[in-house]
Amino acid sequence: MPTIFSTPAEMKTAVGRHLGYSDWLEITQERINKFGEATGDQHWVHVDPERARNGPFGGCIAHGFLTLSLIGMFLPQILEVHGIRTGVNYGADRLRFLEPVKVGARIRCGGELIRMRDVKDGVEIMVRLTIELEGSARPACIVDKLSRYYPE
Fold it and tell me: 124 with 117: CB under 8 angstroms?
C-alpha cells in the first residue's frame, strides 16, 4: 500500500522518512528476453541460458537497465501524490548495480524521501529507491530518482 500525499506540499513533512515497499516480483527469462528484444541488448549473459550456465553467474541474469526500468512499476506501489496536474520523471543523481539479478530471483523496491525543493511551477523530490534481492544481504540496485510534480 503506497504512502499517499494529498498535495505535493504535504511531502515536506516526509523528508527523511521511509515510504514503504512494493510487492515482490519474480524475474523470468521471458521478461529478460523481451527487454533484450526491445532494447537490442542481446548479450549472451542475459538471453542464452545454455552459454550463461557456464558463465560467471551460473545462469542468465537480468539486464541492469531492466532492473532499473522496473521502478516505473514499483514507484506507484510506494508513493502516490494527489492534487497534481501531472508528475514527470526528471532523472537520477546516483545509480549503482550491486548484485546480479538471476533468473527466478525475486526483487522488490523500497523508497525513502531524501529531498524536496521548489522548482518553477512545482516541486522536485529525490527518492532513494533500493531494489532488494530476496535472500541477499546486498541490494540489486540503488538509485536516487528525481521526480517533478506540478500542482493543480
Answer: yes
